[in-house]
């Protein structure tokens, strides 16, 4: 009786588990489909130049940046990229490894995250180290992978974890300190079935892999007490790299020096035929007789710092910190090929600007307190026809730390780049640069930061920001730490500055976020500590200050946007505020900012309550894209009452939740997200409305069976009525355009998919004065 009940109970549990398993599989399957379909709306613009590590396997060379991979098939010559668009989302890659036997590429991260990319493109995310290993988060960095007998030995900052390569499950973790404590393990190898582990501070520890009690720290012994950085098994012997910048082999009783590497090594690696040792300025290659056969000290025409190297098929592949991956034959070390995929200079993109036929990007940045972060990155732009091109820093007249971009709408080949260090750089055409600074803009132009007791800044810098054109062709920009912080380069070439000392108590320390200009020519200036300044030079230089005494939750304002109805949207470090109409500036002398209250069920709450807002952008349908610090991006309706999308690292291809800049191509609707870990875009549908219906366009057309996205009708005027019928005149869809593009999901009023056939698109303007008709071919 009890046995029967027990078996019945077990059968019941089995059925429940089976149902749950089927549900899980279905959920994963559907999630995969949704993610796959969603990714068709996304594009990646990643850099592959800042190489962290390289690896070899299966006639391929693999290279990793901090947040992406690429690999080249040396037989076919193909180069493939793996990034967040594919679902590959690392935290910060520290090392990689490719298992030829299992055809899996592993990427270890500084926080213990491990990503496994299978040969079929599937990505497995392993968070076991992050969640289960009982050590502080800052001690979980992955330093090295070593494969032996279907197991992957993972060297970390706490010890060694072992992954079963057949099941991709963790088996055990070894804490190998002399008292069982966590210690940093830099690299492991196996020789004569003993595992050798190089530690940071207690020498080389070893243990016998046949020992079933190896999990007990007392079963490990100290092999050598020296200070070592790496170890490999090569040609039936142990070779190790010491912190004294020398390489040694073990002769059975002691270590014997074989090479002086001049600098401490980043990596020591071994193939069947070679040892490769990489330092910041040297790459050494030794053959099986431990004879040096290559010594690379530089790459012609590049000033490089080496990061990691490997050999595949007698070709040496060298990763660099800023210039990608170079290859040369071991037999000819004078001819190098750069195999790096085309892309921007780096993945940390600070500002982007969409101009006709070009997307501009700069990489200089400043902190929350507006301290410049000086680097040696130049200026890049992207063109669909040619890809990415970069003006290197050496060609930019000594200017560094580019903070923003502005182009002349009347002459898009005239582009301005503000520098948070050196002034304003102008580009005319393709290669003509002019630098504006305190030496050539007159007494009323750009000025160096004066030495004073308040700022304690004596570097002579000129910290300009956000060059923005008004409708009359005047270029406005701001300058930090000077009392005349608002500048303009008039269309006639004359400079003018505006004194703020009579407006702000601490004008000498004022700092500005990117400015916005409304339809009336009023300039809206968000500041670090002074709220928002509104200014109009056509109204007798009228100023109004909006701060925490009239509606702002804080005086730290990071972003400002003017929407299509001339409303002012202000993003602060503690939430969102709006001014209902910028026109109020014309007639009022005081402006009060208000919040937006939304209804969440039975609760009324403030939109983005106390959230630190980084940027706001307005699309063609007057919707607002809002980025939140470490919170991803929101798309809200024109009045902010509905959230249309929320994108973050978990549910979208965003490589980071810190989106530094949002830029929208008004013609195509493409929305660019510049983050601290890469540039991606979302193919939105809200484009600028057209002035007529001459260029209404339907795409894709025809709609083929394999297509899973929406059908778009672009080139519309605002508030057009769009009706779609079958060939017999039966209505299947109707909507009103907001902006220049609408979408149709290919269904009859959102229900069933329409059948194969020709469908008619009838478009009429709001007043009915203009109409057009298009056709769509649907093939099922």
TrEMBL record:
Identify the Gene3D superfamilies for this entry: YVTN repeat-like/Quinoprotein amine dehydrogenase (2.130.10.10)
Do you know which Pfam families this protein is assigned to? PorZ_N_b_propeller (PF21544)
The lineage's top-level taxon is Bacteria
- Where would you find the membrane-spanning parts of this chain? none
Domain PorZ N-terminal beta-propeller intervals: 61-221
Q: What is this protein called?
A: ABC transporter substrate-binding protein
What organism does the record attribute this protein to?
Flavobacterium okayamense
């Amino acid at each position: 009786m009890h046995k029967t009940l027990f078996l019945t109970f077990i059968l019941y549990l089995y059925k429940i588990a089976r149902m749950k398993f089927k549900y899980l599989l279905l959920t994963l399957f559907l999630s995969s489909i949704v993610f796959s379909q969603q990714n068709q709306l996304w594009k990646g613009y990643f850099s592959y130049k800042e190489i962290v590590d390289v690896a070899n396997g299966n006639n391929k060379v693999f290279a990793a940046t901090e947040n992406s991979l690429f690999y080249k098939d040396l037989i076919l010559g193909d180069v493939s990229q793996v990034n967040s668009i594919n679902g590959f989302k690392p935290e910060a890659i520290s090392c990689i490894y490719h298992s030829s036997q299992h055809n899996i590429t592993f990427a270890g991260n500084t926080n213990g995250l491990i990503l496994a990319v299978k040969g079929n493109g599937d990505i497995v995310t392993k968070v076991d180290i992050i969640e289960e290993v009982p050590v502080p988060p800052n001690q979980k960095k992955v330093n090295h992978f070593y494969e032996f007998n279907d197991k992957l030995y993972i060297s970390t900052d706490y010890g060694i974890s072992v992954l079963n390569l057949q099941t991709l499950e963790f088996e055990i973790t070894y804490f190998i300190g002399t008292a069982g404590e966590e210690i940093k393990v830099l690299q492991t190898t196996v020789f004569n079935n003993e595992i050798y582990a190089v530690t940071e501070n207690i020498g080389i520890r070893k243990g016998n892999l046949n020992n079933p009690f190896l999990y007990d720290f007392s079963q490990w012994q100290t092999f050598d007490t020296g200070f070592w950085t790496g170890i490999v098994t090569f040609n039936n012997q142990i070779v190790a790299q010491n912190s004294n910048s020398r390489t040694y082999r073990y002769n059975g009783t002691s270590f014997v020096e074989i090479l002086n590497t001049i600098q401490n090594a980043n990596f020591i690696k071994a193939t069947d035929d070679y040892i490769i040792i990489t330092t910041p300025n040297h790459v050494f290659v030794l053959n099986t007789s431990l004879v040096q056969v290559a010594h690379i000290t530089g790459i012609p025409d590049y000033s490089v710092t080496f990061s990691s190297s490997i050999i595949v098929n007698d070709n040496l592949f060298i990763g660099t910190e800023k210039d990608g991956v170079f290859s040369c034959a071991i037999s000819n070390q004078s001819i190098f090929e750069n195999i790096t995929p085309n892309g921007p200079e780096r993945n940390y993109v600070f500002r982007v600007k969409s101009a006709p036929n070009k997307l501009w990007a700069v990489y200089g940045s400043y902190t929350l307190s507006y301290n410049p972060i000086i680097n040696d990155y130049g200026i890049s732009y992207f063109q669909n026809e040619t890809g990415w091109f970069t003006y290197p820093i050496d060609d930019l007249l000594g200017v560094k730390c580019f903070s923003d971009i502005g182009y002349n709408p009347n002459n898009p080949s005239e582009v301005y780049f503000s520098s948070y260090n050196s002034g304003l750089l102008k580009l005319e055409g393709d290669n003509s640069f002019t630098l504006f600074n305190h030496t050539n803009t007159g007494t009323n132009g750009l000025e160096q930061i004066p030495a004073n007791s308040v700022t304690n800044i004596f570097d002579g810098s000129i910290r300009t920001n956000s060059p923005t054109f008004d409708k009359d062709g005047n270029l406005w920009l701001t300058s930090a730490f000077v009392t005349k912080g608002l500048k303009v380069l008039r269309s006639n070439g004359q400079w003018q500055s505006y004194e703020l000392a009579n407006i702000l108590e601490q004008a000498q320390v004022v700092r500005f976020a990117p400015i916005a200009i409304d339809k009336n020519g009023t300039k809206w200036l968000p500041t670090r500590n002074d709220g928002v300044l509104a200014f109009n030079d056509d109204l007798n230089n009228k100023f109004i200050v909006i701060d925490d005494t009239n509606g702002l939750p804080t005086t730290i304002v990071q972003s400002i946007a003017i929407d299509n109805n001339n409303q002012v949207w202000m993003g602060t470090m503690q939430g969102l505020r709006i001014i209902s109409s910028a026109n109020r500036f014309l007639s009022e002398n005081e402006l009060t900012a208000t919040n937006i209250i939304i209804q969440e069920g039975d609760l009324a709450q403030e939109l983005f309550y106390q959230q630190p807002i980084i940027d706001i952008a307005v699309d063609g349908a007057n919707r607002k894209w809002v980025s939140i610090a470490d919170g991803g991006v929101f798309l809200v309706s024109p009045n902010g009452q509905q959230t249309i999308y929320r994108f973050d690292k978990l549910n979208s291809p965003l490589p980071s939740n810190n989106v530094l800049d949002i830029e929208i191509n008004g013609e195509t609707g493409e929305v660019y997200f510049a983050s601290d870990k890469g540039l991606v875009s979302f193919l939105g549908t809200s484009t600028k409305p057209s002035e007529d219906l001459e260029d209404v366009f339907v795409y894709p057309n025809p709609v083929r069976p394999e297509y899973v996205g929406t059908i778009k009708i672009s080139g519309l005027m605002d508030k057009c009525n769009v009706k779609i019928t079958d060939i017999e005149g039966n209505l299947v869809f109707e909507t009103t355009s907001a902006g220049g593009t609408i979408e149709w999901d290919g269904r009859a009023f959102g229900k069933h998919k329409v059948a194969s056939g020709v469908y008619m698109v009838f478009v009429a303007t709001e007043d009915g004065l203009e109409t057009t008709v298009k056709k769509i071919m649907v093939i099922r």
